[in-house]
Amino acid sequence: MERNNEYTLTTGQFAKLCKTTRDTLRYYQEVGLLIPYSDPNTGYHYYSMGQVSSFYIISIFKQSDCSIQEIKGLMNNCSKEKLKETTNNKLISMKNEMRSIRNKMASLQTALWLLESFDEHKNLEPFVDVIPHISIAKTAIANKENAYHSVDVAMDLLKHLDFLSNSDSISVLPTGSTISYEDFLNQKYVYNNIISISLKRADNKITFPLPSYDILGCYQDHSESIEVTYAKLRKYISDNKIKVCSDLHIISLINLYDASMKHTYFKYLFFCIEKN
Question: 61, 71 in Cβ contact below 8 A?
Answer without folding.
Answer: yes
